[in-house]
Each structure stands twice: as structure tokens, then as C-alpha cells.
Amino acid sequence: MEFLTRVKPGLELSLGFVIAVSVTIHVLLTKKDTASAAAWIGLAWFAPFFGGTTYFVLGINRVRRRAIRLRAPSAARTRRHRRTGDAANEDHALAPLQLGIARITGRPIETGNRIDILNNGDEAYPAMLEAIARAEHSIGLSSYIFRADAIGHRFITALAEAQKRGVAVRVIVDGIGSGWLLSPAYRALRRAGLPAGRFMHSSMPWRMSFLNLRSHKKILVVDGRIGFTGGVNIADQNLLAKNPPEPIQDTHFRVEGPITAQLTYAFIRDWAFVAHEELQGEAWYPELRPDGPSVARVVTAGPDEDLEKIEQTVLQAISCSRTSIQVMTPYFLPDQRVITALSLAALRGVAVDVVIPSKNVHRMMDWATRANVGPLLEAGVRIWRCPPPFRHSKIMVIEGEWSLIGSSNWDMRSFRLNFELSIEAYDKALATSLGQIVQENHSLPLTLEELHTRSFLLRMRDAAARLLLPYL
Fold first, then answer.
1. Maximum C-alpha span of the chain
2. Which residue from 106, 191, 289, 331 has the highest number of Cβ atoms inside 10 Å of its Cβ?
3. Nearest Cα to 470, choosing from 361, 330, 331, 357?
4. What is the predicted pLDDT for the residue at 14?
């Protein structure tokens, strides 16, 4: 600030005025959240130099992803499935939900899909490794956490062997989730000669956001025909049969049918952003045939043109529910809009059950959750805490017929700041199985009495943790 001490007071005042006006104009044109907009504008006018610098570094969303040119055969196939999908469900009780999500995402519904549930890494990893071993043309893998442990090296070896067979392999790991400075798995991938990229990574801290804008997706697509997605990262702690020191329960999914093309596109779009390479052709987009009973669609979200689309999908589902809502999530810190929607659903007689871990791996999440859920309990929402091991599954089921599965947690980080991927599915058998997983984990209820009997210091601690809601 030595420069400012040598500047004439009049010039300093004029420069501060220009900065404040500039920030105000940019905020008014780009910020949707009124509280955030008001805070940035207030900071800019109260402390122009500090506020302007802080806004330039932290407040501007600079994420712009390159558009991907979809091949014509894929576009034609998509149009065909849009017509058949809409016709098959136009009289269905959840048709308004299907229409609403179509307008939110801009994607068609796809009929004839098969979605299989895989429990923990014990079921997910063997299925994924088998698919990689059978790959003939292409493999796209994206993981938020990719550890260079025993299972991580098994994946790296399998990918390297596939590449030696002539398979086109591409791997994305998150620039923070898989390690910032060392990133052992990324380095092992590169040493194996595999094309790998780190999402939103820079070795210079001022050029990246440490807490926000992470790729939280978990995607594996093989030959454009078989897909995997859900909550399972690549790490030994997901293998419960091996009794790891910090085990994680989770739910993953194997996907086949036309929906796989949407999963492939989501990966290819991210790869173009990370590596500036557009992947095209039959190796990635083969002709796909119906393969099961699920009517499904991919929903992506991120702080770009996909802003808040998963949260909007959740809100649509809550508003369309009439009898039941079942939710399982490891992190439950939704904003006021979701809290209000769930509360109104409970007040109109919908049975709303939310399952969260009894002990979170991040203690501040437990504190903030207790300060955030009072209105839900008052409205009649039932919140259950499932026992250890830590449950990392992300599941939503309404009416026992519709499901939302994928990578997104129920917090502001997933709904607004991370890049996430979910799949909505109209499949009663799948919804029933997922509902049973949620039901089986109803254990200790969280009650209003428990919240009210906390000491003053604990209530202050929890309320203070809640202020960090956007960053937890």
C-alpha cells in the first residue's frame, strides 16, 4: 500500500470511486444471489481498494468451457429418443417432473436403459476393472479422489494394459481432491504413459480456487457402451472387506443403454476443458440400443452454464412429491430454498425422511447441520443418523418410483460451487431397491429436544459453523 500513501488524496478518492462503481456494475450484471451481491457491493464502497482486489480474486467466475460439437448421428439418435421417451410418459403421474427437468437441463429423456446398483468398492471396483479389461476402443475415467494406493495402482495398471492393446484412454483427476502439490496418482498415471489431466489445477495458489470449483464427478465410460457413476472414489478405504482404518460405505451404479451417450458427453466435455482436445467418432459414440427398463437422463451442474441445475432438479422433485421423499446424503447443509421446500412437503402430509451419518468425517459438518435443521424438524421432517462406517451415498427417491443418483451432496458446495453429475431415473424397481437402502439405515433419530437441550456454548459453536455453510 506504499503506492497509495504517495497518491494525492483527490486522486485516491477518484480511483476508489471508479473501483467501487466498476465492481457494482459487474456485480449487478453477473450475480444472481441478492445477499451475495449486496455484500460485494457494500464491501467495494466501504473499502474500495481492499474490496475491489478481493472481488477480482475471489468474486469473479472465470470458468468458461469450450463447446463440444456433437456428431450428427448422435444428435439424430437423441431426437428419436426424445420423441419416444416423451410419448411413453406423457400420462405418467410424474410427467410434470419429467417435463420440468427437461427444460432445466436441455437434455432429452432416454428410454431403454439398465441401471445396476453396486455396493461399496467391493462390488464397484471388480465391475469397473472387468469393463476396463474388456475395453476395445475407448476408456474415459474421471474421479474426484484417485489415490496411489493398492486399488489405485490396480486401476493404473489396467488402464496402461488397455492402452497397450490400442484402446484410447483418457483420465481426469481433480486438482485438489487427488492432491494439489504431489498428486501421486496423477504422477503415476503420467509415468505409465497415460493421457491424464488435472481439473482446475495450478501450482501457483493465486491462479486457482482451493475450496471451490472442484470436479466432484465420478465417471467411467468404456467403449461408449458401459458407464459407471455414483459416489465411489478410487481409494482403499472403499473396500470394506479389507477392514481399512477409516472405511467408507458408498453406492455406485453400472449403466447401459442410450443414457451412456450422455454420460460419455459429460466426460468428453470435461476433457476438452482440461486438455483442449475434442474426442469424437465411433470409438466414443457408438450406436446404442435399448437395454433395460429405466427411463433416464443425465443432470450436470457447475458454476458455469449448468449453474444450480441439480438443486433445481431437487426442488422440482420435492414440489412434485405427494406421498414420500427419501434422502440419503453424507453432507446435509442445504440452503433456505431447499429447507423451505422440504418443510412445505412435510406440512402437506408427505413423509419426508433424511438419512445422514451419525458421525461425520468432518466434525464441523455435524456442528453446522445441527444449527441448520431446526425448521425441518419443526415441520415434521424426520432426520435419521445411520451408524458407522461413514455412509457416503447420495440417493433421493420420491413416490417409490423416481430416483436421483450420482455425485452431488445436499450442500451449497455441491449445489452451486462444484462440478457434479447425477442421473434421474423413472424406474420403480430401482427406486424400491434404493428406498430399501435408505430405510435400512434409519437408526438414531435427531430430535428437537436434543437440539434445544444443547448448552449455550455448543449452540454458539454450531451457529458459528453454520456461517461457513458455503465453504463446508
1. 74
2. 331
3. 331
4. 83
| Distance from C-alpha of 258 to C-alpha of 253, rounded to nearest angstrom | 15
Residue type present at position 95: A
Decide: helix, strand or coil at residue 343. helix
Residues 48, 19: contact at Cβ < 8 Å?
Answer: yes
Buried b / exposed e over 123-151, threshold 16 CB at 10 Å, is bbbebbbebbeebebbbbbbbbbbbbbeb
463 near 370, Cβ under 8 Å? Answer: no
What interhelical angle do 309-320 and 336-347 show, nearest 10?
A: 10
Domain residue spans of the chain: 2-55, 72-299, 309-471
Cell of 466: 453454520
- Strand, coil or helix: 128: helix
399 class by beta-carbon count within 10 Å (0-12 exposed, 13-18 middle, 19+ buried):
buried
Give pLDDT tens digits for 325-337.
999 999 999 999 9
Q: Residues with Cβ < 8 Å from 315, sequence gap 6 or more?
A: 337, 338, 341
266: exposed, middle or buried (C-beta count within 10 Å: 0-12, 13-18, 19+)?
buried
| Domain 309-471 = CATH 3.30.870.10 | yes
Asked if pLDDT for residue 229 goes beyond 60, the answer is yes
Distances (CA, A) of 21 to 4, 8, 27, 41, 209: 19, 20, 10, 9, 25
Same fold, 72-299 and 309-471: yes
The residue-averaged pLDDT of 127-140 equals 98
102, 131 Cβ separation under 8 angstroms: no
What residues pair up with 252 in beta bridges, in sequence order?
118, 230
Reference 135, options 114, 160, 118, 112; nearest CA is 160
